Amino acid sequence: xxxxxxxxxxxxxxxxxxxxxxxxxxxxxxxxxxxxxxxxxxxxxxxxxxxxxxxxxxxxxxxxxxxxxxxxxxxxxxxxxxxxxxxxxxxxxxxxxxxxxxxxxxxxxxxxxxxxxxxxxxxxxxxxxxxxxxxxxxxxxxxxxxxxxxxxxxxxxxxxxxxxxxxxxxxxxxxxxxxxxxxxxxxxxxxxxxxxxxxxxxxxxxxxxxxxxxxxxxxxxxxxxxxxxxxxxxxxxxxxxxxxxxxxxxxxxxxxxxxxxxxxxxxxxxxxxxxxxxxxxxxxxxxxxxxxxxxxxxxxxxxxxxxxxxxxxxxxxxxxxxxxxxxxxxxxxxxxxxxxxxxxxxxxxx
Amino acid sequence: xxxxxxxxxxxxxxxxxxxxxxxxxxxxxxxxxxxxxxxxxxxxxxxxxxxxxxxxxxxxxxxxxxxxxxxxxxxxxxxxxxxxxxxxxxxxxxxxxxxxxxxxxxxxxxxxxxxxxxxxxxxxxxxxxxxxxxxxxxxxxxxxxxxxxxxxxxxxxxxxxxxxxxxxxxxxxxxxxxxxxxxxxxxxxxxxxxxxxxxxxxxxxxxxxxxxxxxxxxxxxxxxxxxxxxxxxxxxxxxxxxxxxxxxxxxxxxxxxxxxxxxxxxxxxxxxxxxxxxxxxxxxxxxxxxxxxxxxxxxxxxxxxxxxxxxxxxxxxxxxxxxxxxxxxxxxxxxxxxxxxxxxxxxxxx
DNA sequence: CATTAGCACTCAGAGAGTTTGAGTGCTAAA
DNA sequence: TTTAGCACTCAAACTCTCTGAGTGCTAATG
Lengths: 350, 350
Description:
18% strand, alpha+beta, homodimer, DNA-binding, 350 residues, elongated, 11 helices
């Protein structure tokens, strides 16, 4: 798609004006806005050309033009200039990143929330799961004569624990034995490899403490399961209602519902290769997103996992600004706990 | 407030009709609905009386009547009959409760989500924090020569852990020493009692390993802090838009925003004594809730904490149904982990 | 040949006026 | 005390008209 320099300038002016105002743009306004010595009639001719190429469209005969999805795509690929982040903006994000991030879940939630506040669009955050995680070691800590703590660590350095209370008493020696048995039998196995047969064999070996084995192992399995699971967090949904395109309930409601039912991570696009991806209108697979745009960025969470944060908005969203912020934040997050090391030297992997 | 039996029946019929339809109720409809041998004119007279008492109001002269907040209050206190839960409903809730509940945070989230799905109204869930929690014990587990796990257990039986990686190596003996020092110095203290002076003393005692002390203790402090914190989860916001009273954006938007900014738990009402509380329209403190009703139930989370779940909706919400469901769920939650014991014998306190 | 001025044409949206019908309050009779 | 009857009210829906921003086309211009 080749365009003369003038057409490019006009297209760009139209898109940027429409991004601002959400109102169809007329030839006169453009003639005035670009500092060029051409009349509105000329602009009209150019606009007709751009429309013929499929880059613009008309809501109706006597309105101005609005960009088509194809137009946005061209803008994003060729016309858009990188948005410079203000000091204020980066400071805001840095501050958000510095928050105490205790659990992965909470980090995601937090990340989504920050993005949403920063962009004034709804945001979502999800983690892509892993399915070859194994348990690296078990530790059993005696607490009282009838209670102990299971500590389980995976090969991806995730540590989880649970307190177990028993109806009967337990000796330190028993616990020790159990511990050894667990570490020899159940380490290095993926969730799928922990079979009922294996369980039966282990229970047999455990003698008296055979009931405890299944207790501990089922906890370990829960942990592995939890790591496989992908969860989505959405936030800032209410921002939708502030946008002129969602003043009509008919348009807001379906999208709103779609985004709220955040149970299914599959419905959210995940960038394949690139760290950042923009999906404009019909480029989205999901029907409910057909006339919205989605910008997603991915970041390294360490432990072999990648996190994804994204923003959903009308097709006329300010791509330059959004991509700048999103990628800054994604980078920050990568840095933050991609290495398992926080700037302050806190290695939180819980 | 004394009413004749007939007035009671009429008021109840009006309220229940309005709960269903959200449309002002006319005298004729009522005359037909209650199986009574009276004409609409009589009903009109009675309605005029009820209006004089402040139980009903008119949106405008030529419309039917709608209940006033006072009317709802009367209904809730005296007229409402307990809603019977269907087998299907209880089954649905039981199923939700049976879900694997790993972390408190997730439980809250889940509880709110279930309520919201069950009632078709937005729901919120929050935990009221504790501030006299202390650390009961520390355990340090060596993982590699330069990494160990901190396991911390509070007097409320919450167990948390973190993996720490060090730039330098560490001996088992050092770790042992550290462990003892921590257990003698920092157990039994609330967050406020862990003073900088105490830290300095301990660091001095730790000799070589003085840097590690602050690492571990600051993690412990984070844990205590986390338990003090109250967090809110809202869900099902999109349901608002399905209701006729929120078809106008002007009404939906402020409420939506209010509920979305879930950072501040203070904005959500917490029932003081009763296990269940109903706040009708202006009975709410927050301005944004002035013409909505809120139903909240609290439940025991064990560990001396109480959880709160609630539903927000228009004043005409179906109080009978909502209270029934909410209290069933709250009871279930209390049972579920109030005792620290799950039905299946899983004592999850992570 | 590209550009421009001029003009007729289009059409969504705002505003004004009209109609409709559900519902009320009052009065007089049962 | 209840009821039938009737005049009255008023929001909501509908229709009609007007307005003005914006277009496309044509003919003139450099």
